[in-house]
Amino acid sequence: MSTDLIGYVYSVVIIVGGVMGFVTKGSLMSGVMGVGSGLLAGFAAYRSSQDPRQWGLSMLVACLLFFLMSARFIQSGKIFPAGVVASLSFLMIIKCLYVALSQDKSPRATS
Predict the structure, then answer these.
(1) Do residues 48 and 7 touch, judged by C-beta distance below 8 A?
(2) Other C-beta atoms within 10 Å of 108: how many?
(3) Cα–Cα distance between 15 and 1 in angstroms, integer?
(4) What is the pLDDT along the chain (111 residues), one digit of tens a residue?
(5) CB–CB of 10/88 below 8 Å?
(6) CA neighbor of 48 nearest in space, from 79, 87, 11
(7) pTM score over 0.85
(8) How far apart are CA 34 and CA 85, in angstroms?
């Protein structure tokens, strides 16, 4: 069993970003959504740590954050936080695709 370290780091970065948005800008929505999506990403990392074939939730969270934050980046033109989160989410999508495509597809013999 291998730990999804990349997934855990991603979730912590999302949580810290949400807390920073709340503390610095007073944005309750940033705090709630950052912590909520970070916790969901952390749960997804926990699931994929238990079974690497459980990458779907990680992919879903990364895709949602990628599309949402890409739209915000295009709208605002601000690198931080929208561009950074969109970039990290894109990297998570690539990681999930790698895991999905590198899985053993052959049926296992049971004895």
Answers:
(1) yes
(2) 6
(3) 25
(4) 688 999 999 999 999 999 999 999 998 998 999 999 999 999 999 999 999 889 999 999 999 999 999 999 999 988 988 999 999 999 999 999 999 998 876 665 555
(5) yes
(6) 11
(7) yes
(8) 10
Contact 39, 65 (CB under 8 A): no
What DSSP assignment string belongs to 56-88?
HHHHHHHHHHHHHHHHHHHHH--IIIIIHHHHH
CA angle, residues 68, 4, 34, in degrees to nearest 5: 30
What whole-number distance in Å separates Cα of residue 8 and Cα of residue 42?
A: 6
Nearest to 56 by CA among 40, 67, 68: 40
Distance of alpha carbon 97 from alpha carbon 84, whole angstroms: 20
Answer yes or no: are the C-beta atoms of 30 and 22 closer than 8 Å: yes
